Amino acid sequence: MRGLAEKVSRSWFMLAAGGLALLSLAFLQIYSPIEAYAEDNAQVVTAVIDAATRALQQQIDAKTKEIQQLEALAQSYKNTIASTQSQSQTLKNKIQQISQTVNKLKTEIRLAQTQIARTNLEIGGLQSKIDVATIEIKQKQRDLGLLLQSLAASNEKNLVEVLLQYDHLSDFATYMQGIEDLQKRVYQTLGEVKILRQSLTDDKAEAEGKVKDLKRYTVTLADKKLLQTQEQQNQTQLLAETQNQEKKYQSLLSDADKKRRALEDEILDAERQLQYTISAGSLPENAAGVLGWPLTATDQSYSQCSRSVRLFLTQCFGTTAFSSMGAYGGKGHNGVDFRASVGSEVLAATAGTVRGIGDTDTACRRASYGKWILIDHDNNLTTLYAHLSLTKVSPGQHIERGDVIGYSGQTGYATGPHLHFSVFAKDAVEIGILRSRVCGRNMTLPMAPLNAYLDPLNYL
Questions:
Q1: What angle do the packed helices 2-12 and 169-242 form, to 10 degrees?
Q2: Which domains does the chain have, with CATH numbers?
Q3: Are the C-beta atoms of 143 and 189 separated by less than 8 Å?
Q4: pLDDT higher at 9 or 410
Q5: What residues pair up with 372 in beta bridges, in sequence order?
Q6: Could you report the per-residue pLDDT of 291-327, keeping only the tens digit for each?
Q7: Which one of 159, 380, 382, 407 is CB 3.0 to 4.6 Å from 5, fit for a cystine?
Q8: CB < 8 Å & 24+ apart, contacts of 147-150
Q9: Distance between CA atoms of 380 and 382, rounded to whole angstroms?
Q10: CA atoms within 13 A on the CB side of 255
Q11: Closest Cα to residue 399, out of 352, 347, 358, 356?
Q12: CB neighbourhood size of 428 (10 A)
């Protein structure tokens, strides 16, 4: 009988009594009175938490509905602005377009404010979940400590003496079954702690993501407010220049077009003096996805420029209707133009380093790229983003694919708000200083030999 008891003892107890006691003491020491109250009043605590969670979710749902309404309103303004671009260029239409742009930006400001409010609520909700999970983990750890104490106490007993206390082996077997059940509860509790810890880790990761969203929305809010101020200033300046007279506005457009043509001839002369030989295999093969879309692409596709695209194009690469009318000095369009209302986020086409930024309007208004960004990429391509309303990067800065680098606009020579996007062979493009006879000032802008301009749609 004694041999049987010792064999059973070795098979059921894997931990020494001293180790179990230390473990149980450690689990009990981390348990605070707050968790003890939560356990003793579990139903009350659960009811309070559930009520608070429901109230918080109702607030989040209300903000989500408001965001959807504001997004729809902003989109309606974008559609209206897009429709005005096909209308004749009159002062009345231009003022209306600026007014619609200001209204759109005001809506986007409200949208950013609401997104910030909702994100704060979501962070608060996640923090509550984190707090609850932390308490539950400590409760489970306390339970585990008590179970380990019970196992330690059982292990201190001499099984032979325990066996001799029973008249029947079935009673002893029942006792041993109780020990086995105790061990199962230990493993079950350990599993529950593991699940709770994973849930806690997931909630913390989600909360960190929401904090990043909050920072992004805060930056967007500040940017939109700045853009709104700029547009209002543009409207004031336009009215001052034209004295609200159509004739003077048409004269302004005519002068800008003449200046643009003369400047394009100067740039073309400078670029024809540049030489570059494209080495075989130095550039990536034509394939979709080599570069990402420089604006947020929609699920809708458009059949334009002899292919299917995910952003609406207002002008293709190379020979276009506009270039056939004498634009670009007869060399064709050196990029593509995407429809984009003022304030649309402009995205880096892929990871790279900002080579330079500039604003041709400081030297010659309404004549060239306006605000621009030039980015070098590791695949031997360089991308240009022009006619921006605001730039958000600086020379030498490393950026990742999809990073917001600026906002679209109508700076430089642009008959309407849009994004000009060019792709170059990296080794051929340079940021040059052009002494413009037309403007009488030095102008800093990207220039390249004609064969270094590549069709962006071959890589998007």
A1: 0
A2: 2-230 (no CATH), 279-458 (2.70.70.10)
A3: yes
A4: 410
A5: 358, 386
A6: 999 999 888 899 999 999 999 999 999 877 666 565 5
A7: 159
A8: 147/24, 147/182, 147/185, 147/186, 147/189, 148/20, 148/21, 148/23, 148/24, 148/27, 148/186, 149/20, 149/21, 149/24, 149/28, 150/182
A9: 7
A10: 12
A11: 352
A12: 20
Rounded distance, CA 216 to CA 219, Å?
A: 5
Measured in degrees and rounded to the nearest 5, phi and psi for residue 344 equal -75, 140
CA distances from 22 to 27, 34, 144 (A): 9, 23, 12
Q: Where are the alpha helices (DSSP H) in 166-306?
A: 169-242, 246-272
The two structure tokens encoding residue 278: 């494209």
Q: Which H or E run contains 336?
A: strand 336-339
Alpha-carbon torsion, ordered 258, 264, 265, 268, to 10 deg:
180
Q: Express each pLDDT in 203-237 by its tens digit.
A: 889 999 999 999 999 999 999 999 999 999 999 99
- In the block, tokens 């308490």 appear at 135
pLDDT tens sequence across 273-293: 888 888 878 899 999 999 999
Predicted confidence (pLDDT) per residue in 189-212, tens digit? 888 888 888 988 898 899 999 999
Joined together, the tokens standing for residue 169 give: 């082996």
Average pLDDT of the chain to the nearest whole number: 85
From the list 323, 320, 299, the residue with the least C-alpha distance to 310 is: 299
Helices (H) and strands (E) in the chain, counts: 9, 14
- Beta carbons of 417 and 408 less than 8 angstroms apart: yes
Do the beta carbons of residue 295 and residue 408 sit within 8 Å? yes
Q: How many residues does the chain have?
A: 460
Three-state SS at 168:
coil
